[in-house]
Amino acid sequence: MVFIHSEGKFNDNTYLVDGLLFKLKGSISIYIIENDGFRMMIDTSTSGVSKTIIKKLQDFGIFPVQKILFTHSHWDHIQGAERLKKLMNGTGVEFLASEKALEYLKHPEKMNSYFDATAKPVVDVKPLKEGDIIDLNGLKIEVLNFFGHTMDSIALLDSKNKNIFVGDTIIDRLDRETFLPTFMPPDFHEKEVIKTFQRLKDLRSQINSISLSHFGVWEGKECDTIMNEMEDLHFQTKDSLIQWRDENPSMNYIASRYREKFIPNSKIFTKQHLGGLELQMEWLTRGLRCASFIS
């Protein structure tokens, strides 16, 4: 079983770079797809780590990039965009995202409000739709609508390397002992995420690895495990959070119960350090509220 979480090249065309969300290792993946000198970055992390990301690209010999693609419009995937573009030494950088993301990118205020974030507007973005092909000097990457986590989420299928980039839509599995569901505000849509789960299962014969934004690449049997568990874990965690919130709306209570039931061996969210998990539970309950599962 393979879980790729070390930075560097992991297939013929793709690099994993740790985006250091909240300056923490293993919190967000930045992927660089390269073919014959042409490079596309997938997501950006936050502007505070942009210089560090640039240094990593230089160290790996994959600087600059010509395209930056956003898997969706949440703040942690877009905030570094303009800063990274400026740090590319004046080279032309094209932004790409789902056609449904353009309004949120231009006007991120609503999205920011749900996360107490400060993402700035991103403009001049090339819209993408289902079935579009991104051609990286002959390496063809297919765009797929993977709605649910947000209604502007897209996945990227790299058929040559049998790898799929799914953003946050499926699950956040930070390591083997730590996972989080993905029903985040403001436009989580359960019916769509169930369709996305099935669509990913239908692609199983075409892929051998899943690249998650949070965090890393899950290959072979690990890939199977994610596909087999993602739907059950979605419903288990959703139902549990609704029950726990009814029992006690304290985020400390909900986080403690979540850790006890779902991630008891996590070294990321320990009993002594629940602050980060409390923040995640706050966001997740906001997502359930936006979807009208709780009042």
Keywords:
295 residues, alpha+beta, Metallo-beta-lactamase, Chain A, seven-stranded mixed beta sheet, 9 helices, 16 strands
Plain-language structure description:
The chain has a single domain, classed as Ribonuclease Z/Hydroxyacylglutathione hydrolase-like (Metallo-beta-lactamase, Chain A, 4-Layer Sandwich). 34% of the residues lie in helices and 23% in strands. It is built from nine helices and 16 strands. The protein has a seven-stranded mixed sheet, covered by helices on one side. Strands 2-3-4-5-6-7-8 form a seven-stranded mixed sheet, covered by helices on one side. Strand 10 and strand 11 form a beta hairpin. Helix 7 packs across helix 9. The protein is globular, with a radius of gyration of 18 Å. It starts with a strand and ends in a 5-residue tail after the last helix. The model has no long low-confidence stretch (mean pLDDT 96).
> Which fold name fills CATH's third level, the topology?
Metallo-beta-lactamase, Chain A
Computed structural class: alpha+beta
Whole-Å distance between the termini? 41 Å
**What is the global morphology?**
globular
Brief overview, please?
34% of the residues lie in helices and 23% in strands.
How are the secondary structure elements laid out?
Elements: E1 2-4, E2 8-9, E3 14-18, E4 29-35, E5 38-42, H1 50-60, E6 67-69, H2 75-78, H3 81-86, E7 94-98, H4 102-106, H5 109-115, E8 125-128, E9 133-136, E10 139-145, E11 154-158, E12 163-165, E13 172-175, E14 178-180, H6 190-202, E15 209-212, E16 216-219, H7 221-247, H8 251-262, H9 275-290
Parallel strand pairs: 5-6, 6-7, 7-8, 12-15
Antiparallel strand pairs: 1-16, 2-3, 3-4, 4-5, 9-10, 10-11, 11-12, 13-14, 15-16
